Amino acid sequence: MIIFGTRGVTTTPEEGQFHCPQCNQQSAFKLKRVRRFFTLYFIPVIPLDKLGEYVECPACQVTYDPEILNYDPAQEQLHVEALFHVACKQVMIAMLLADGVVDDSEVTQLRDQFLSLTGTDVPEQELREEIAQIQAQGSSAAELVARMAPQLNDNGKEMVIRAAYAIAAADGNVDETESRYLLEVAQSLGMSEAHM
Length: 196
Known about the structure:
This protein is of the alpha+beta class. 39% of the residues lie in helices and 25% in strands. The chain has six helices and four strands. The chain has a four-stranded antiparallel sheet with strand order 1-2-3-4, with no helix packed on it. Helix 1 runs antiparallel to helix 2 (104-118). It is globular and about 50 Å long.
């Protein structure tokens, strides 16, 4: 019996030094590349498509888009947001929208949770605009994080799940719909149910 399939394989094609915005200092980096391989007897044999790339800082374990390697703190004024911050915010918004109602207390709770998890304060108006945009798109939490999953390491994925859970539990109760959402998000991130 021939056993075949596909799986993602992460490699480190490049290492070096960069300025990590999270550590706010020069740090080592590892460029990680995730590629799907055809497997035969669970052994990766033929490389297929590239799923994603990310730069990981080993010191703080935050992941960034590879463009971060061009970041020059002396001349840059732009705000560089870690990928998991974006994923956390978007998944919390999707969890907030799960019941179809957005009230002021939920928005305040989301801002507080985001500040607590990431150390970054989001202006209320900016957050409301992002909520309206995601609501108009009709994207689920799973769809939002699936696009970022190949660029997040295990630490980033766990942070996203924590963020989703924080919003689901904000009212003191995690109902069945929210539990399903959490499981869908974990699966979109490539996490097992046990890990989640």
